[in-house]
Amino acid sequence: MIRANATPKQLADYVESNPNKLGGEPVFVRSRVPVRILFDHLRDGLTIEQFLEGFEGVTREQAEAVLELGETELLRQVTSR
């Protein structure tokens, strides 16, 4: 959830897609860690902490921002119907 006085998060600040990096698969900025791996970990019942321990190139801020942006987009799509 975006807090009052907070700058809205932009996906491009946290995720990039470059055809020369993993064939264009979305990865966390400044890493080669696919965003998909975060969702795979959570789906498998692991915590954000466990994900971060396994992928030190990803920050907590990045992981939380991706989840927050995903939530925001999902809710936007559902409520815009």
Question: What this model shows, in words?
Answer:
This protein is mainly alpha-helical and 81 residues long. The protein has three helices and two strands; from the N terminus they run ββααα. The chain has helices spanning 35-43, 48-54, 60-79, and strands at residues 15-16, 27-28. It has a two-stranded antiparallel sheet. It starts with 14 loop residues before the first strand and ends with a helix. The model has no long low-confidence stretch (mean pLDDT 90).
| Fraction in helix | 40-55%
The rounded distance between the terminal residues' Cα atoms is: 21 Å
Spatial sequence of strands, sheet with the most strands: 1-2
Reported for the largest beta sheet, the result is: 2 strands, antiparallel
Number of strands: 2
The number of domains: 1
Low-confidence stretches: none
Structural class estimated from helices and strands: mainly alpha
Query: Globular, elongated, flat, extended or rod-shaped: what is the shape?
Result: globular
Q: How many helical elements?
A: 3
- Overall average residue pLDDT: 90
CATH topology: Arc Repressor Mutant, subunit A
Oligomer: single chain
Order of helices and strands: EEHHH
Instruction: Please name the fourth-level CATH homologous superfamily.
Output: Winged helix-like DNA-binding domain superfamily/Winged helix DNA-binding domain
CA-atom Rg in angstroms? 13 Å
Beta percentage is under 5%
CATH architecture: Orthogonal Bundle
